[in-house]
Design a protein that fits this description.
Blueprint lengths: L4 E4 L2 E2 L12 H8 L8 E2 L22 E4 L14 H10 L4 E6 L5 H4 L11 E6 L3 H13 L4 E6 L18 E5 L9 E2 H14 L3 E5 L3 E4 L2 E4 L3 H9 L13 E4 L1 H6 L4 E8 L7 H17 L9 H13 L9 H10 L9 H13 L2 E6 L7 E6 L7 E2 L3 E2 L6 E4 L4 E3 L16 E8 L6 H16 L2 E9 L3
Parallel strand pairs: 1-4, 4-5, 5-6, 6-7, 7-8, 8-10, 9-11, 13-16
Antiparallel strand pairs: 2-3, 11-12, 14-21, 14-22, 15-21, 16-19, 17-18, 19-20
Length: 470
């Protein structure tokens, strides 16, 4: 399976701490090989984030989500001597997103690096609670500690948990899952549904990760060895969102209206369930890559109508399209140069597929991170700050740019870090930039809607076009 993420285990082994640890999967797997999981050891992959290829590039490409310390606990006291170096690697690789889960949130304050401040932008720390007792102990501590990205993990969910005293806008997501393994304890449908309903009420993203081996609904136990199949059946009974989406209003600036009377925007806003990766989607992408190679060359890719129109728009703005390439062209060129496409997450990978297929440069935004209800399309100004995804500060002077109340969120070259799509995203705003006009755009919107439904379970879909009428 092609993964847009990697797992980094700088050390291995852990001591059981609470009820959720009783049937630990790491102990179970190590036991099959005669290993003692209570022995904590540094691994050979300790410095994985900063390892480089022979070409000098990092082995882990920018934009990758790094699941950290999943065979131990990052805050384990046996790792106190190693942790400073791990923090340093996270700081060095600010172009990666690190995520770790801990049952030892009460140790965090004493384990933070000196320059932590309110948290590193690229580090998510998740706190796991398996029952009410651990929720009541850990979550007040978790709420108070300085972390920029916080998620509550109720896995394994062993009892009913009332999260109402704790949930608020400080929580980015709540994840729920049952226990796996032959000795697994029961996970009850009603417990899951109560947490999910509370998340809907509080407008907090909710992810039902797995049923576990023993899942009870309506008093009936459904033991299964195929948790993913059962989860798919149960998910039809646990809707993720009930909130009606109010579509963003996009206003096109007067200068752009004058310069590009044919410009048409294809807009989709919807609720989604994003995932780290989709094997089936990447099969489609790989098939499309072969088609692109068979049809175009480096010299002809920029002659595709949608790409050529965007390049011409850049020239009119006074921007060199060979230096600031539209994203659709950049993706096609990577394919034609036999470079791997970045694997980010299913929503981003899906939008890249649409862009490669159609030639349109497409903005993909987390709608909940956009400030205000209106978005304005204008022209970038000199020295206007814009932190491009994986690229740092981008000179957007002369580029068409979408702005919310806070500032720029996207250009046809790159979107902004602030509103990027990640695994916490539950509302997607997608804007197709058709500088070539409306022809073919409706088909592209229909194609996009089909893929969104297929791969990210898109619901509450609002779809429209914005055309400049002269």
């Amino acid at each position: 399976m092609n993964e847009p993420s990697v797992t980094w285990n700088p050390w291995h082994g852990c001591r059981k701490l609470s009820e959720g640890c009783r049937n630990c999967y790491v102990y179970r797997i190590d036991g099959r090989h005669g290993k003692d999981s209570s022995e904590v050891k540094q691994t050979a992959n300790f410095d994985l984030p900063i390892k480089r290829k022979r070409t000098g590039e990092y082995k882990i490409p920018p934009g990758t989500l790094v699941y950290t310390c999943f065979s131990s606990d990052f805050l384990l006291d046996e790792a106190d001597n190693w942790r400073p170096a791990a923090w340093q690697m996270m700081r060095t690789r600010s172009d990666l997103q690190f995520l770790f889960i801990t049952k030892r949130i009460d140790r965090l304050q004493n384990c933070l690096p000196k320059d932590w401040g309110n948290g590193y932008d690229n580090v998510a720390i998740c706190c796991t609670v398996e029952n009410q007792d651990r929720a009541d102990y850990r979550l007040p501590i978790y709420k108070a500690v300085p972390v920029k990205h916080k998620m509550i993990i109720c896995e394994p969910l062993l009892t009913r948990i009332d999260l109402s005293p704790y949930l608020g806008n400080w929580v980015e997501k709540v994840v729920v899952g049952g226990e796996s393994g032959t000795e697994a304890r029961i996970c009850n449908y009603d417990w899951v549904l109560e947490i999910r309903n509370l998340c809907v009420e509080k407008n907090i993203p909710f992810w039902f990760k797995q049923t576990g081996t023993k899942f009870v609904k309506d008093g009936t136990s459904n033991a299964t060895s195929n948790m993913h199949r059962q989860k798919k059946q149960i998910l039809t009974l646990i809707p993720y969102r009930l909130v009606k989406i109010k579509m963003k209003i996009i206003k096109i600036g007067e200068k752009i209206r004058q310069l590009f009377p044919n410009l048409t925007l294809g807009i989709i806003e919807c609720s989604i369930v994003n995932t780290p990766s989709s094997e089936t989607l990447w099969e489609e992408i790989n098939t499309l890559k072969e088609s692109i190679k068979a049809t175009y060359t480096i010299e002809t890719a920029n002659k595709r109508p949608a790409i050529a129109a965007t390049r011409q728009a850049y020239r009119i703005f006074g921007k060199d399209p060979n230096r600031y390439r539209p994203s659709a062209e950049a993706l096609c060129r990577r394919i034609l140069r036999d470079l791997e496409l970045y694997k980010v997450n299913t929503a981003v990978d899906l939008i890249n597929l649409i862009s490669i297929q159609t030639g349109y440069s497409i903005g993909g935004f987390d709608a909940d991170k956009i400030t205000g209800q209106e978005i304005a399309l204008g022209i970038g100004r000199e020295n206007e700050p814009f932190e491009a995804i994986g690229r740092g500060q981008l000179n957007i002077a002369g580029l068409p740019v979408y702005r919310d109340e806070t500032g720029g969120i996207g250009t046809p070259t790159s979107d902004n870090e602030r509103t990027k799509l990640n695994l916490s995203t539950t509302r997607l705003l997608m804007i197709i930039n058709a500088y070539s006009g409306k022809k073919g755009l409706d088909e592209s919107l229909d194609f996009s809607e089909m893929l969104l439904k297929k791969y990210v379970d898109a619901k509450d879909i609002i779809k429209k076009t914005e055309q400049i009428l002269t």
